């Protein structure tokens, strides 16, 4: 566990103990995790994804980095919008959700999805159904807060 000022702690639930750990011990025992942490220290970590990847924002260069320390992989999306409501990543596909549109970035290029008239996007998720990537959105009516909708888009059709 880490704190807001980047100190490491070991937490043992069964012994009900918390012990501070020095950086050198983490670097020796958990090398890959420590490498990820050193990379993350440079930037703001926004979100941990379900596959264990971290979404890290590089505000200076307008880049979004997806780092997975277990798989030892890093994907960088250059010149990406870093002003968004939600973000998701799966198998090389990045989705950036704003109220007025969703930008999908993938190997074959980029695509933008716009909400229906008088609706705004709130959230989005990339799902994989039998090897076909799908994008699911939650949107809400600007005129009636009781109206919301969930839509599904096939990414290969965008």
What coarse outline follows from CA principal-axis ratios?
A: elongated
**Percent of sequence in beta strands:** over 45%
Helix count? 2
Biggest sheet strand order reads: 3-4-5-6
Distance between the termini: 41 Å
Number of E strands: 13
What average pLDDT do the residues reach?
Answer: 84
Biggest β-sheet strands, sense, barrel:
4 strands, antiparallel
In angstroms, what is the radius of gyration?
A: 19 Å
Order of helices and strands: EEHHEEEEEEEEEEE
Low-confidence stretches: none
Category from helices, strands and their pairing = mainly beta
Q: What share of residues is helical? A: 10-25%
**What is the domain total for the residues?**
2
Describe this structure in words.
- With 158 residues, the protein is mainly beta.
- The strands form four sheets. It has a four-stranded antiparallel beta sheet, with helices on one face. Strands 7-8-9-10 form a four-stranded antiparallel beta sheet, with no helix packed on it. It has a three-stranded antiparallel beta sheet with strand order 11-12-13, with no helix packed on it.
- A hairpin with a 4-residue loop joins strand 4 and strand 5.
